[in-house]
Task: structure prediction
Amino acid sequence: MNCQDFWNSFPELAGRGEHPHLAECTACESRMAHYLALKQGFRALSAAGPRLEAPPRVEQRLLSAFRRQTGADFRRPSRRWVPLVTWAAALAAMVALAIFLVRPRAPEAERPPLRRSVEMAMLQVPQADAEGFIPLPNSAGVAADGDEINLVRVEVPRSSMIALGLDVSADRAAELVEADVMLGSNGIARAVRFLE
Amino acid sequence: MTLAPGETDDELLLRTQSGDEEAFLTLYRRRQAGLFRFALHMGGSRPVAEDVTQEVFLALLREDCGFDPSRGTLSGYLFGIARKLVLRHLERGRSDVALETEADDYAPPELAVVDDPLLDLTRREGIDALRRAVQALPRRYREVVVLCDLEEIDYADAAVALGCPIGTVRSRLHRARGLLLDKLNQERNPRQAMGTLKPVRCLL
Result:
């Protein structure tokens, strides 16, 4: 082994200078001795003075940054499922709609009569009497002659007219409208008359 | 969550990325001092070293931090980030006052020392002289000395940090040590160093 080979294969300072080449080459032996002395100098330099490290405020700042990040970014993986769930929900809705549209319906005659009567009742437009009173559902209806009644004038939201099947514009639903409520002798409302 | 004492950097990083605060602190406390000293030796000021240390770990917290375990250790990766940050600081502040002998084909000096300067390297004067000599090294030699000789990280990690092959680390280290010996020799034997200057003829 020549000097160049020795230094190419043994350049680190980790060795203690024990190598056959050093025994036969005084130049390399001297050079190695200097390098080992340099190594001791590096260790002395590292150990000299106070222990150098980052001040505690760096750790505090990083901890704050980590906590902020943990509250945001590290929870981000769960958000990755949001589009998937959205698409799955949309697909399920489309399948349900398709099944509903394609499903064969029972003929009209086979449908239960009770259900049909309810549907018809719902479609009926309320019929007002001559004075404009509309009988309320599930009540005794407009009072006949001789019944003791009381009339009370109130203001109700226009949207309450919808419940009686009257057409109400959506943008006026919140407006108040005057109405006369016909109360029976038992205090239960029997009919209503809107004053517009 | 409790941490095993022998937990590797990679394991700590994985836990950190899953939001484990204790793992992050363990990793920080394990690596911050070396990074701070490296930045201090290279940047020459504590504020720079402080900023660099903080920025290194902030970079590690990013989701796309870019660490690839197959390319080297986390330690080497962290030193690599620190090095880039220090260079950015130096370019911004132009505070690098080292003698820039950047040529890689620099020939190390002969080590025939008359009055051996290495005998007292472990004494105060010797340590100060060595510190000055390290600071006076050109940047590319200083960084490899700080990494391999002062921080004692292995050559593979140094290669990752410096972004060069291991062979380059070896050769730079070899030349850096030669430069250091030369510098120490000059400090100890100024007359001998003066003798190496070429005489010029005065025409006036």
Q: What stands out?
A: The longest helix of chain A spans residues 26-47. The interface with chain B takes residues 7-8, 11-13, 30-31, 34-35, 37-42, 44-46, 48, 51-55, 58-59, 61-63, 65-67, 69-70, 73-76 of chain A (CB under 8 Å).
